[in-house]
Amino acid sequence: MAIQKLLLCCGVLAISLTAEAGQEVEPAYEPPKAVYDFYLDDPAKMGSALYWIRSLINPLMDSPYDMAPEFMEIKVVVHGTEIVTLAKKNYERYRTEVERMRYYALLGVEFKVCGLAASDYGYSVEEFHDFVEVVPSAFAELLHWQRQGYGLITPRVYIRQQSLEEIR
């Protein structure tokens, strides 16, 4: 009995060592309808959070999908500390992030700031960049778009403690 188990384990090991590599697949994606919930604990994380948008848009714009961004319905609801990145007075400090958001806005992504959060930070509508819409409530906005069939995406942004080389 022990010899049979040993032979079985050796056979499984041999099969796993000779198994083929992973396969690249091309799912039949449709143009996305997504609403992002941006609620970050540090405005410095905004740049990383924006990569979550890129990670949705860019692969779908490339072959084999070749989707035009104007057919993607993407909303970003902002209501955390990152709200300061959208205030015109902070442009120099967050220039890179603002220009990335402006680029996404030109592709059709809608940026919406929670009016309650704006009030908490002492911002008026006029203090935001021209591609920003101020909505009454982040939560009402998130629920509204989910009821319209939009998938909710909530970026988790962590500060990497090790380099990629160290963790590979």
Spell out the key features of this protein.
Hypothetical Protein Ychn, Chain: A; 5-stranded parallel β-sheet; 168 residues; Sulphur_relay_DsrE/F-like; DsrEFH-like
Fold blueprint:
Elements: H1 2-18, E1 33-38, H2 46-61, E2 73-78, H3 95-106, E3 110-114, H4 115-120, E4 132-135, H5 138-147, E5 151-153, H6 164-167
Parallel strand pairs: 1-2, 1-5, 2-3, 3-4
Question: What is the first-to-last residue Cα distance?
Answer: 40 Å
What structural category characterises the helix and strand content?
alpha/beta
Q: Can you tell me the number of structural domains? A: 1
Strand content: 5-15%
The averaged pLDDT comes out at 91
CATH class: Alpha Beta
Radius of gyration: 22 Å
Q: State the helicity in percent bands.
A: 25-40%
Name the strands of the widest sheet in spatial order.
4-3-2-1-5
Succession of helices and strands: HEHEHEHEHEH
- Uncertain spans: none
| Shape summary | globular
Can you walk through the features of this model?
This protein is of the alpha/beta class and 168 residues long. The chain has a single domain (33-158), classed as 3-Layer(aba) Sandwich (Hypothetical Protein Ychn, Chain: A), CATH 3.40.1260.10. Helix content is 39%, strand content 14%. It has six helices and five strands; from the N terminus they run H-E-H-E-H-E-H-E-H-E-H. It has helices spanning 2-18, 46-61, 95-106, 115-120, 138-147, 164-167, and strands at 33-38, 73-78, 110-114, 132-135, 151-153. The protein has a five-stranded parallel sheet, sandwiched between helices. Strand 2, helix 3 and strand 3 (110-114) form a beta-alpha-beta unit. Helix 2 runs parallel beside helix 3 (95-106).
